[in-house]
Amino acid sequence: MSVTGVGEFGLIGRVTARLSYGPTCLLGPGDDAALVTAPDGRVAASTDVLVEGRHFRRDWSGARDVGHRAAAANLADIAAMGAAPTALLVALCAPPDLPASWAEELADGLGAEAASVGASVVGGDMSASPTLTVAVTALGDLAGRAPVLRSGARPGDVLALSGRTGWAAAGYTVLSRGFRTPKLLVEAYRRPQVPYRAGPEAAAAGATSMIDVSDGLLADLGHVARASGVALDVRRDAFEVPRQMGDAAQALGVDPYTWILTGGDDHALAATFPAGTELPPGWRPVGAVTDGEGVTVDGRAWEGPAGWDHFR
Amino acid sequence: MSVTGVGEFGLIGRVTARLSYGPTCLLGPGDDAALVTAPDGRVAASTDVLVEGRHFRRDWSGARDVGHRAAAANLADIAAMGAAPTALLVALCAPPDLPASWAEELADGLGAEAASVGASVVGGDMSASPTLTVAVTALGDLAGRAPVLRSGARPGDVLALSGRTGWAAAGYTVLSRGFRTPKLLVEAYRRPQVPYRAGPEAAAAGATSMIDVSDGLLADLGHVARASGVALDVRRDAFEVPRQMGDAAQALGVDPYTWILTGGDDHALAATFPAGTELPPGWRPVGAVTDGEGVTVDGRAWEGPAGWDHFR
Q1: Which residues have CB under 8 Å from A83's CB, separation 6+?
Q2: Residue in chain A nearest B143 by alpha carbon
Q3: Do A120 and A78 contact (CB within 8 A), yes or no?
Q4: Which residues does the UniProt record annotate as the domain PurM-like C-terminal (chains A, B) (predicted)?
Q5: What is the ipTM score, two decimals?
Q6: Which of A77, A130, B91, B101 is 20 to 30 A from A209 in CA distance terms?
Q7: B82 and B163: one domain?
């Protein structure tokens, strides 16, 4: 049955019945607003929107996948401040003929990804629209720590990474060439594996700056370099090309480092730490912070394609 | 220049440069997430989405108006919990040919409406989309009070209203018949006048239930009746028909009580109070809570058109 057949309130009922609510959710869907714990006395908040045809395709990703990815994009932003995610709110704009089951499975994916990090889907809104759109807001708690901004990197700091890059971009390239395998790459595109806990752990370890890698490593490091007034240099040999990625790159005629250095949507976390910091689990050094400006790879400008502009 | 011409980051820069940030905003746009005060240790959160052609038309409302209305719809949900709004986050999905000035003026409207109640636009996201869409999330603080839910109305309570109903619906009817006047009604549709402060004041005065009237008074009271397991009766003579509304109703051949009792989008607040409560300023009694179920007008079922389902 379509969302129109079920109706707005019917669909909200079906979706909320599938969700479960963790201890951060004091009041879930069904009233004018939800109520979420904010023990720190401050709340971190971020919004990301996914538009069909631009951020996802229904023939490439199932509804659950889109839910996972929409949640991940937002939860990663919270983690990148050093905060622990507490809640998601979701606005779903659905074409009238969208199967109600698609909305239900989207909620399953959103809920599962949120639950994986102790957060809950606490509220949302639905409307008909010609364009299938999922707008998500994530909330999080800093547990008394200072937020880790993009602007705190200092010359002499170590540049480090938690999580992986290039996998989602490789999966995207595979799909866009009409293939459905290698499964490992396609699945990486469909459901990013985000090192959420690495965010608060980096904050606790004294990270001076941090960012969620969503537009591509070099593009996002560019934000850090600009905000901090420093130069960042990435060591290419800090990144091994995984076998499956290398094989696919060769088959498709792509330099795998284009995926690794400029591919978005894996939601790795990049951070800088004072020299000598013992990096928390899962973090590895990938470069250095120096005086100057801009981002280089092994000391040279990157000549390949750059990051992503959602209007271009 | 269009949003495509300006580019995603250019547009974000233009928009955020126009915003101002009040004391609830600890960190505004420009990092992975914003940071907002939540002194209560809990945060109220609500999301509402506006889709062009469904919730607004660009030939009926200017961008500033849409901003005011999108903000109002969300801020009213926070007020209806008894909370004071602190922040808005906004996802804008824009057709590539949207003038950048439209996005800028939207931000002006969102910011002005938020500022009127002490809140700030603290973050957001932008994407291209075939369908102009504005998804807003509002946050708020309960200042130590219990949230006022839809489920707390008890037989014997007084049903009360703050703010006005029917004005936005009258303006909508005027516009949909091709007229641009009376100005007063059209402006009421374009920019609702929401009694934000009445929400926390009702909570402080002991309101047992509260709701934002967004889908129409009778429809929204239906939510309260169901959630509380009570019947609600509205006195029709508690509502005077304002002269301008009466004149327009006569000219258009509409029963003005259809607007007043079933028209949405003015974002009045409806609440129930224990009998004998001295109602806070701006609240007036409009009916009673009794044993039973459903919503009646002067003891009888309402025969006119019902509320609004966004998929139908």
Answers
A1: A44, A140, A141, A142, A143, A147, A199, A200, A203, B33
A2: A41
A3: no
A4: 154-244
A5: 0.95
A6: B91
A7: no
Domain membership of residue A182 (yes or no) is: yes
Residue B24: CATH number of its domain: 3.30.1330.10
Domain that holds residue A75: 3-141
Q: Are A279 and A273 in contact (CB under 8 A)?
A: yes
> CATH number of the domain that B267 lies in?
3.90.650.10
Nearest to B31 among A33, A87, A149 (CB): A149
Q: Which SS3 state, helix, strand or coil, does residue A284 take?
A: strand
Residue among A201, A208, A196 at smallest CA distance from A267:
A196
Shared domain for A98 and A185, answered yes or no, is no
Instruction: From chain B, pick out residues whose CB is under 8 angstroms from the CB of A77.
Output: 32-33
With CB atoms and an 8 Å threshold, state whether A33 touches B45: yes
Question: Is A247 within any annotated ligand binding site?
Answer: no
- Contact (CB<8Å) B47/A96: no
Q: Does a structural domain hold residue B218?
A: yes
Show pLDDT as tens, one digit a residue, over chain A (312 residues): 899 888 888 888 899 989 999 999 999 999 999 999 999 999 999 999 999 999 999 999 999 999 999 999 999 999 999 999 999 999 999 999 999 999 999 999 999 999 999 999 999 999 999 999 999 999 999 999 999 999 999 999 999 999 999 999 999 999 999 999 999 999 999 999 999 999 999 999 999 999 999 999 999 999 999 999 999 999 999 999 999 999 999 999 999 999 999 998 999 999 999 999 999 999 999 999 999 999 999 999 998 765 544 444
Neighbours of B175 (CB within 10 A): 18
